[in-house]
C-alpha cells in the first residue's frame, strides 16, 4: 500500500469529538485521508499512533500525531480559515461543554452504563442549554452573527443531547437554541462532515476528505 501524502484522520462518524474535527477540516477544505473506525475493532495503526484509543486522531505526513479534537480544529483552521472561525471562539464555554455538560450528557444517554438515574442529569444539562439559548438570543451564533469555532465545537454535543428524547427536547423553552441547532444540521457543511463511509481496513483505497463536492447546498437529515 502506498503511504498517504495527506494527513490521516481516524474518525467515527457519530462521535461528537470527531464531528467537530471534521467540521473544521471541511470548512477550510483541508484535505486528509479519512479512515472510519469501528470502535469494537480499532485499527492497529490508530492505536500505534495514539495508544489511548479514542477518536479523532490526526497523523501528519511527518509522523506527528494530534489526538485531541480541539487541537485538530486549531491545526486545520491554521491551514485554512475562510470564515474566520478562530476569531469566534469562547474557550471557557467549550470547557463547560466538555466538562459538566458532557458528564451529564453521558449519564442521560447511557444511564445503565453508569448506574444512575438519567433525569437529574437531563435537568442539569438543560441548565447549560438555557445559558446557550440566552447567548444566542443576541446574535444568533455563540460569538456573533456568524458561525465560528465555538459553534462547531459545541453543536455536536447539543445535537446528541437533543436526539435522546426529541419530543421532550422540542417542548423545552429553548427557541433560540432550536433555531441555531436546526440551522447547523441543515447546512451543507454539516452534510459534508457527515458523509458516510465504511469502516477502514489496511489495503483499502484512500478516501479523501472533504469529498470533492465540498459543502453541498442540500439539507442533511442525519441519523442519530
What features would you highlight for this structure?
224 residues, alpha+beta, Glutaredoxin, five-stranded mixed beta sheet, 5 strands, globular, disordered C terminus
User: Helical proportion?
Assistant: 40-55%
Strand order of the largest sheet: 4-3-1-2-5
The major β-sheet equals: 5 strands, mixed
Q: What's the mean pLDDT score?
A: 93
Radius of gyration: 17 Å
- Give the assembly state of these chains: single chain
Termini gap? 34 Å
Unreliable runs: 214-224
Number of domains: 2
Structure description:
This protein is α+β, with helices and mostly antiparallel strands. The protein folds into 2 domains: 8-84 and 195-209, Glutaredoxin (3-Layer(aba) Sandwich); 85-188, Glutathione S-transferase Yfyf (Class Pi), Chain A, domain 2 (Up-down Bundle). It is 50% helix and 7% strand. It is built from 10 helices and 5 strands. It has helices spanning 16-28, 44-49, 69-79, 91-109, 111-114, 118-139, 149-164, 166-170, 175-185, 188-193; strands at residues 8-11, 32-36, 57-59, 65-66, 208-209. Strands 4-3-1-2-5 form a 5-stranded mixed β-sheet. α1 (16-28) runs parallel beside α3, α4 packs parallel to α7 (149-164) and α6 packs across α9. It is globular and about 50 Å long. The chain starts with 7 loop residues before the first strand and ends in a 15-residue tail after the last strand. The model is unreliable at 214-224 (pLDDT under 50).
Amino acid at each position: 500500500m502506498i503511504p498517504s501524502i495527506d494527513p490521516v484522520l481516524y474518525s467515527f462518524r457519530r462521535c461528537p469529538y470527531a464531528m467537530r474535527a471534521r467540521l473544521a477540516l471541511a470548512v477550510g477544505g483541508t484535505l486528509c485521508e479519512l479512515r472510519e473506525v469501528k470502535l469494537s475493532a480499532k485499527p492497529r495503526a490508530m492505536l500505534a499512533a495514539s495508544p489511548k484509543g479514542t477518536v479523532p486522531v490526526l497523523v501528519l505526513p511527518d509522523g506527528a500525531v494530534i489526538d485531541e479534537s480541539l487541537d485538530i480544529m486549531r491545526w486545520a483552521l491554521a491551514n485554512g480559515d475562510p470564515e474566520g472561525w478562530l476569531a469566534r471562539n469562547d474557550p471557557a464555554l467549550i470547557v463547560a461543554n466538555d466538562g459538566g455538560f458532557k458528564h451529564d450528557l453521558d449519564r442521560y444517554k447511557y444511564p445503565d452504563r453508569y448506574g444512575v438515574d438519567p433525569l437529574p442529569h437531563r435537568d442539569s444539562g438543560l441548565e447549560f442549554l438555557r445559558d446557550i439559548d440566552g447567548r444566542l438570543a443576541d446574535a444568533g451564533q455563540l460569538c456573533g452573527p456568524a458561525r465560528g469555532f465555538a459553534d462547531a465545537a459545541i453543536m455536536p454535543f447539543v445535537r446528541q443531547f437533543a436526539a435522546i428524547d426529541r419530543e421532550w427536547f422540542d417542548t423545552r423553552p429553548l427557541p433560540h437554541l432550536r433555531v441555531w441547532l436546526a440551522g447547523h444540521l441543515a447546512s451543507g457543511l454539516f452534510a459534508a462532515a457527515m458523509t458516510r463511509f465504511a469502516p477502514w481496513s489496511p489495503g483499502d483505497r484512500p478516501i479523501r476528505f472533504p469529498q470533492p463536492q465540498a459543502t453541498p447546498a442540500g439539507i442533511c437529515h442525519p441519523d442519530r
